[in-house]
Write a structure and sequence with these properties.
Layout: H1 8-12, E1 21-23, E2 26-29, E3 32-34, H2 43-51, E4 57-58, E5 62-63, H3 64-69, E6 89-94, H4 98-111, E7 115-120, H5 125-129, H6 140-153, E8 160-165, H7 172-188, E9 192-196, H8 210-220, E10 225-229, H9 235-245, E11 249-252, H10 262-270, H11 281-298, H12 304-315, H13 322-329, H14 335-346, H15 357-361
Parallel strand pairs: 3-11, 4-6, 5-6, 6-7, 7-8, 8-9, 9-10, 10-11
Antiparallel strand pairs: 1-2
Helix pairs in contact: 2-11, 4-6, 6-7, 9-10, 11-12, 11-14, 12-13
């Protein structure tokens, strides 16, 4: 069987009423949430996602060593900032040494994160070279020690979860190691596992193997929540993954950058309603201004516009003159520059356009 999404009609026929998601003792609700995104899922992006229908989000991954050196007085303190609007929110942790994982997890708990997520999925070469992220899938003994120490160090009422890929590669040995880690995670009392349908070796090339997610869910039954990840760029993709694989929920990564509307689109389709129209040009401008203001409140004045630029480039994909707007957004260096672009391209309201998922599929996360 090919690992391709279902037809649109299959997603449209899915009715209400997806069962609500619960992670440990944390009531999440609608089971389509925002994933951790390195370099993107900071406080402003998470808040915008929550205000547009995401029931849960996870912060960009943080190194355990970085967390241990972090203080609220430093200019990097924003990494631990949590907005009152975004609970429940997960803190994601990555590292090499089990002892430092545990200490880093406690730092996230102290900061107020509601769930601690351990990253065993990052496929970036420099991360793997330092025995972090997806590298742990090659060493089940160390991986399970990391999970055990993290679970032991974190208060019982704080759920611990893990992000994994389906293995280092497609060998039988890699598959066996994956299930050794997953089975061990269940025994240790982890509340959920997010599974990306690609291997570490694949990175983001080729299709995500949804049939593997179905196999994983069949393997664990109801003993642990399984969230799916990979190739989720439209609302139909999200519903298709749940329907086809039986996972308990999905995490939207690249598909949510500059597209917070995807979450309400998912809700509408899950209730049997038509797909909502894409955001109008005026709506896009309003949301970008809101996002920019959150960015200014989070970062130093000179840094906020430069960080916001990458988001504006993604938002521009909903504009009917996408290519022109993208080029203009790529040049902004200040709030004034941003407002000039809005005046030029967003002052007259008109219908927006759905983001072309093929743009995302051709890019790395």
């Amino acid at each position: 069987m090919l690992d391709t999404p279902q037809t649109a009609s299959q997603a449209d026929n899915q009715s209400s009423r997806l069962p609500p998601l619960k992670i440990g003792n944390i009531e999440i609700g609608f089971p389509i949430v925002q994933a951790a995104l390195s370099g993107y899922s900071d406080l402003p992006m998470r808040v915008i996602a929550r205000r547009h229908g995401a029931t849960y989000s996870i912060c960009e991954v943080m190194l355990d060593q970085f967390l241990l050196a972090l203080s609220k007085r430093q200019k990097t303190k924003h990494f631990l900032d949590i907005h009152p609007d975004e609970h429940p929110v997960g803190g994601q942790l990555m590292g090499a040494e089990p002892e430092q994982f545990a200490a880093g997890a406690l730092k996230l708990v102290e900061a107020g994160f509601d769930v601690i997520d351990v990253n065993f999925g990052c496929p970036v070469k420099k991360v793997l070279g330092r025995c972090r992220g997806g590298f742990h899938l090659s060493q089940p003994t160390v991986a399970l020690e990391v999970l055990a120490r993290t679970r032991e160090s974190v208060p019982d009422h704080i759920p611990v979860t893990v992000k994994m890929r389906r293995g280092i590669d497609d060998s039988n040995e890699s598959r066996d190691k994956f299930f050794t880690i997953l089975d061990g995670a269940m025994k240790l009392g982890l509340a959920a596992a997010t599974i990306h349908g690609r291997t570490v070796e694949q990175r983001y090339v080729g299709p995500s193997r949804w049939s593997f997610l179905r196999e994983v869910k069949g393997h664990v039954g109801n003993r642990i929540k399984i969230l799916g990840s990979g190739d989720l760029f439209t609302a139909k993709d999200c519903l298709n993954m749940i329907s086809e694989t039986g996972v308990d929920g999905v995490t939207v990564a690249r598909g949510a950058i500059g597209n917070p509307w995807i979450f309400k689109q998912c809700v509408a389709l899950s209730q049997g309603e038509p797909l909502p129209p894409p955001p109008s040009v005026k709506n896009q401008a309003d949301v970008m201004r809101e996002h920019f203001s959150l960015c200014e409140a989070t970062y130093p004045e000179n840094r906020a516009p430069l960080l916001m630029r990458k988001f504006c480039i993604k938002y521009s994909q909903s504009h009917p003159q996408h290519e022109h707007v993208r080029l203009a957004m790529a040049r902004i260096r200040s709030r004034d520059d941003f407002e000039v672009v809005l005046k030029q391209y967003y002052s007259q309201d008109s219908p927006g356009q759905y983001i072309n998922p093929e743009i995302h599929r051709s890019q790395e996360e």
